[in-house]
């Protein structure tokens, strides 16, 4: 616990932060990193609490600091950085939040351990941006966004795609659905997710889209849900004109 020249009549106490563990001791030794001694004349040094360390010659428990990936908790002990945060150096500073739209596991020690959330894309440790509408990404991490399958859709930042509503469809990789042929959107419905109703009698719609059904030409009608102009047929007493046989019905002639 003391130091001095061998044979000397006077020995000095080892100060705090130092120790001497076996005679004869001619000098005091610094407490190694990760330990401390808070009293003079120490024969050993105490270990810092779990998940903390200290510099050489620490003389107080307060000289112990949290390791990378840990921060001071309410009790004063070092606790792991929470999900979505990181700390890349030892010290008593708080853990830092990951960049936007990214997260991390408990105890992360580097910003590179921050990875993109599901529905977002970007490099590890960087700001992540939402997957565009019409695509999705199920997993966290550095994976690409994938296009939605036909007859499904997604909004930006989605982790999955949803099926189009009844009587509507979409092409691959779309953020919206459209009414199938033979159906038209209800006027009050959303343009992205329309409610689709059958084309009424006398109207038709040949392709998918969010447009109204077209009317049959004069003196003709069609069944509900018709998909083509040739579904229009002449009223009794009218016959089709030869110029445009499926559109025009001439009047005043007996139907053959």
Automatic annotation (TrEMBL):
Identify the residues that the record assigns to the Tyrosine-protein kinase ephrin type A/B receptor-like domain, covering every copy.
27-64, 73-114, 195-232
- The domain of life is Eukaryota
Task: Enumerate the Gene3D superfamilies for this protein.
Answer: Tumor Necrosis Factor Receptor, subunit A, domain 2 (2.10.50.10)
Question: PANTHER family this protein is in?
Answer: INSULIN-LIKE GROWTH FACTOR BINDING PROTEIN,N-TERMINAL, SUSHI, VON WILLEBRAND FACTOR TYPE A, EGF AND PENTRAXIN DOMAIN-CONTAINING PROTEIN 1-LIKE
Name of this protein:
Tyrosine-protein kinase ephrin type A/B receptor-like domain-containing protein
The species this protein belongs to is Hanusia phi
């Amino acid at each position: 616990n003391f130091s001095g020249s061998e044979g000397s009549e006077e020995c000095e106490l080892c100060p705090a932060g130092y120790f001497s563990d076996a005679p004869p001791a001619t000098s005091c030794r610094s407490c190694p990193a990760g330990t401390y001694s808070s009293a003079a004349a120490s024969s050993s040094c105490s270990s810092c609490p779990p998940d903390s360390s200290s510099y050489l010659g620490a003389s107080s428990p307060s000289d112990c600091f949290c390791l990378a990936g840990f921060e001071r908790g309410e009790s004063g002990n070092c606790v792991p950085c929470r999900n979505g945060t990181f700390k890349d150096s030892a010290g008593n500073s708080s853990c830092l939040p990951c960049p936007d739209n990214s997260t991390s596991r408990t105890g992360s020690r580097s910003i590179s351990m921050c990875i993109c959330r599901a529905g977002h894309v970007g490099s590890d440790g960087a700001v992540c941006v939402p997957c565009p509408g019409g695509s999705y990404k199920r997993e966290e991490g550095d994976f690409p966004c994938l296009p939605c399958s036909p007859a499904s859709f997604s909004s930006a930042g989605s982790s999955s795609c949803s099926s189009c509503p009844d009587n509507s469809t979409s092409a691959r990789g779309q953020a919206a659905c459209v009414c199938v042929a033979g159906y038209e959107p209800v006027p009050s419905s959303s343009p992205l997710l329309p409610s689709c109703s059958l084309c009424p009698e006398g109207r038709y719609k040949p392709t998918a889209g969010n447009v109204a059904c077209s009317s049959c030409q004069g003196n003709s009608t069609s069944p509900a849900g018709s998909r083509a102009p040739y579904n229009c047929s002449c009223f009794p007493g009218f016959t089709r004109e030869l110029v445009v046989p499926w559109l025009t019905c001439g009047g005043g002639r007996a139907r053959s």
